[in-house]
Amino acid sequence: MTIGVISDTHGLLRPEARSALASVDRIIHGGDIDDSQTLQWLSCLGSVTAVKGNCDRGSWARTLPIDTVITVEGLGIYVIHDLAAITIEPKAAGIAVVVSGHSHRPHEEWRDGVLYFNPGSAGPRRFNLPISMGKLHVGPSGVSSEIITLG
User: Fold this and answer.
1) What is the 3-state secondary structure (H, E, C) of the chain?
2) Of the candidates 31, 55, 57, 72, which lies 20 to 30 Å from 141 by C-alpha distance?
3) Is-contact 84 66, C-beta < 8 A?
4) CA 39/CA 36 separation, integer angstroms
5) Which of 71, 76, 9 has the alpha carbon at shortest distance from 39?
6) What b-and-e string marks burial along 19-44, b requiring 16 or more CB atoms within 10 Å of the CB?
């Protein structure tokens, strides 16, 4: 199973991101969506799990959770916008992957058997940071990740 992971779109869903997400089985948005149209478009591609980012305001964003846990192929995936706000101990909670956004910096790191994955920002360029998103590949041997540079 392939999961498209995108964050910090800030109202901009680039054609390259749409193309990369067209072939995934499910989508995770790590927050800072900024508008309901982005979520509507993503939901046309399939199942979307999204969390609320610090820039997500208005009536459309009220139903978004601050964090959530989903299970894919038996693996727990914890999703939160700002990693600094995490309130659980992932390994103790049986989490295999922690997905976050907020920093606009793509990052993938294994810590204590848990993959911490930030796809970076797929929205408007910020400073000299790359424009990116990612994918998680979940299968019988576990999970692997990839960062995809856009633009």
Assistant:
1) CEEEEECCCCCCCCHHHHHHHCCCCEEEECCCCCCHHHHHHHHHHCCEEECCCCCCCCHHHCCCCCEEEEEECCEEEEEECCHHHCCCCCCCCCEEEEECCCCCCCEEEEECCEEEEECCECCCCCCCCCEEEEEEEEECCEEEEEEEECC
2) 31
3) no
4) 5
5) 9
6) ebbeebebbbbbbbbbbeebbeebee
CATH number of 2-149: 3.60.21.10
What is the Cα 32 distance to its own chain's centre? 10
Domain boundaries defined on the chain: 2-149
What pLDDT score was predicted for residue 63? Answer: 95
